[in-house]
Amino acid sequence: MSQFIDQEINGYKVQKAIGEGKFSTVYKAMNKEGNVVALKKIKIFDMMDPKQREKCLKEVKLMQPLDHPNIIKYLDSFIYNNELIIATEWAERGDLKKLIKNAQSDDTPFEEVQLWNYILQIASALDHMHEKRIMHRDLKPANIFIGGDGSLKVGDLGLGRIFSSETIEAYSKVGTPLYMSPELLHGEGYDMKSDIWSLGCIAYEMAEFKSPFKQSEKMSLMDLFNNITKGEFKPVSNRYSQQLRDVIEGMIVVDPQKRLDASTVLQKSKEIHNTFLDSKKTPQIINVLMMEDIYEKLSLVQYHEYFCIPLKKKPVSKYYFSLDENVNQNQRFYYFVELCYWLMSLPKQKKSKMAQPIKLNYHNVEETARKLLIDIKAWGIKLPEQLGSPHISQGCGDMVCFILNDLLNRELIRVNFKFESPNFGKDMESSVIQVNKIDDEDLVEIQEEENENEEVEQDELTQSILFYHKKYNNEQTDYNQVPQDRQVIETKVAINEWTKEFNRVEKEFSKFEANLKVNKLYLKDYERTIMSISKCSKQLSLLSEHLKSNEVQQIQQQWIDYLELIPKLETKVTESIPEDIQITLKQNRNKISDLQLQISQLNKGNSEKLEIDQQLNQQLLDVKERTPVLEDNRSKQKQLINQLRNDIRDMDIKIGIMQTQISKSYFHTNDVLSDEEF
After folding, report:
1. Same domain, 98 and 72
2. What is the DSSP letter of 234?
3. Do 303 and 221 fall within a single domain?
4. Which residue range or ranges hold the Protein kinase domain (predicted)?
């Protein structure tokens, strides 16, 4: 279909090829309304007979009525130049396979709330499909796409059933069945719970960045089959809750009867995900207090004049980065990114502090977040090692406030801002903030002081949190005390109305007080975690210094010398071996290669037997379906069935003979090798 790029096909303008799978090639196209769609060309459609093609078209059309936010919408299907073309909804942000790969390369595990959210979306899609009596059969990360809003969408529906007879053969040639259930691999009867097995394997891979059954890259297909059949895998790590581990293990169960179904997984994931959302609705007092300081410091660096006006942006509120308000999440995140880059650019700007527009990837939040964290670390801010793009991608929260506060503090220190205690009453008008510019010598002294306090700065996040916690405790107001110079305000509002309002406000304060208690417990746990991280950091620093010592370097140099000596010794040993022994060793290697070739032929024979068994079973089913109609041909049908059974028996005997011969050859070769060694 590459010859049709930049041409119109059945009302679709093909733009470019974007991906290729085992059964289809995907192209980006545009319909008549100007909307971007995905066109799939089915590879094996031209290999089918007319009846198979008609069945394939019916299966695709069965998918069109499915309407769910987490399912790729099928828009159209048609035949063009004897090829099946399927038009589907466009997912602009790639697939789950790419998302997992990016997180693995960044060494940033998914947060548990993210895993529950992804499991919830996929389970919701499967539950909707299973209610319609539709199975997927080929669920894997590459078939789960990501929409423009970040939601997951299950794709390639119906194709699993179309290709079910081809799947095992295709996997044995070009891939590995990492997500196929044991009953589907063995060609046994399977039901909707086969999709749940696949979902469990996907959830495990998101949590551990590897398949539950693939122990190494060099694992053979037969060993992988055996691991899947046994259903034995390493448990999910303890960094996730027991609830998440139980759900994942409940989906990867060999016995389909004991395996969880889609509705159960959906219900559990929805309940636990909602608990995470409810906990996030609690006001974060520390963030609110820190954001108030950030708001004041922004005015000190003349943020309105040098940032808002040049970039035509509205000033932020006092809670913009601290609470998850009803604002556009992406807009808030990119506001935070631009603000950070402006603050980091101020030391380089000698004449003008005006913010300049910067080029950002406004279509990929995670990529922009990763780049920002790298630039912040390179700029000099020390961030926790476990900090990743998910911690700042929402544009609010404790880490966002911490980064902004640190950048503002460094800028204020750079320009030598000095604050005086406020004077009230008559001297209020004379109370001003003293701003003194510093020269290069003073800047060197400040840098020397920073170097002396480097150990203190390593725990800057902990100190910042403790500071705001102390500030919050000290700023509690006693509302029972009324100033003496305050006059009583008389009102004409009825007393009962005041009583109702008083009761309403009192209830609100009670809820707020309960939330405060929860936040204090959270803060204590957070402080303990930060302290343990700080201790580990110091230990790693000591270990790093030890590795740089002269003794360790001498040992490393000795190992390098030994490694350089090994090839020379091998050459001498090889030269000392007699020529007849070298010829014998070469012959033995050739025999081993022949034996390995015979073993691979045996594996191929097993695969062919599996394919023949499936074809014979299908023929038996076809014969049984025709039995009620062809009543006069019962004797011929019985003969055909007996003939098929005899063919199966003969094939089993042939395979057994081949296995016996190869085993004898294998043991004979081992005996010859052992005799030659003696």
Report:
1. no
2. P
3. no
4. 12-276
Instruction: Give yes or no for a contact between 107 and 124, defined as CB atoms under 8 angstroms apart.
Output: no
Does residue 77 have a pLDDT over 80?
A: yes
What's the alpha-carbon Rg for the chain, to the nearest Å? 35
Catalytic residue set: 138
pLDDT at 3: 64
Handedness of CA 29, 31, 36, 41 (dihedral sign): negative
Mean pLDDT of 317-344: 85
User: Measured between alpha carbons, how far is 252 from 259 in angstroms, rounded to an integer?
Assistant: 7
Residue 563 has pLDDT above 50, yes or no: yes
CB neighbour list of residue 161: distance below 8 Å, 6 or more residues apart: 59, 135, 137
- Under the banding of pLDDT at 50, 70 and 90, the label for residue 492 is low
Cβ-count burial 36-59 (b if 16+ within 10 Å, e if not)? ebbbbbbbbbeeeeeeebeebbeb
Q: Where are the alpha helices (DSSP H) in 87-157?
A: 96-105, 112-131
C-alpha–C-alpha distance, residues 198 and 588, integer Å: 44
Which pLDDT score is estimated for 613? 76
Q: Is 40 annotated as a binding residue?
A: yes
Rounded CA-CA distance 404/410 in Å is: 10
For residue 230 the two structure tokens come to: 């046994």
Place of tokens 């309940």: 271
In a domain, 504, yes or no: yes
Domain ends where: 351, 384, 414?
414
What is the b/e burial string over 632-658, where b = at least 16 CB atoms within 10 angstroms of the residue's CB? eeeeeeeeeeeebeeebeebeeeeeee
Tell me whether residue 447 is in a domain: no
Tell me the range of 337-346, 378-387, 419-428 where mean pLDDT is highest.
337-346
DSSP β-bridge partners for residue 417: 435
The stretches of 548-578 forming alpha helices (DSSP H) are 550-576
> What is the C-alpha to C-alpha distance for residues 598 and 667, in angstroms, rounded to an integer?
13
Which tokens sit at 398? 């404790």
Range with the poorest average pLDDT among 269-278, 610-619, 662-671? 662-671
* Residue 265 within a domain: yes
Q: From CA 659, how far away is CA 653, in angstroms rounded?
A: 10
Which of helix, strand or coil describes residue 313? Answer: coil
Let me know if residue 460 belongs to a domain: no
Range of the domain at 650: 579-677
Domain boundary among 281, 301, 326: 281
Tokens of 278: 């409810």
One domain for residues 598 and 547:
no
Q: What is the pTM of this model?
A: 0.46
Q: How many CB atoms lie within 10 A of CB 319?
A: 17
Predicted confidence (pLDDT) per residue in 514-548, tens digit: 887 777 777 777 778 888 887 887 788 777 777 77
For 84, phi and psi rounded to 5 degrees? -80, 125
Tell me, what CATH number does 17's domain have?
3.30.200.20
> Phi and psi at residue 316, in whole multiples of 5°?
-80, 160
pLDDT at 252 > cutoff 90:
yes
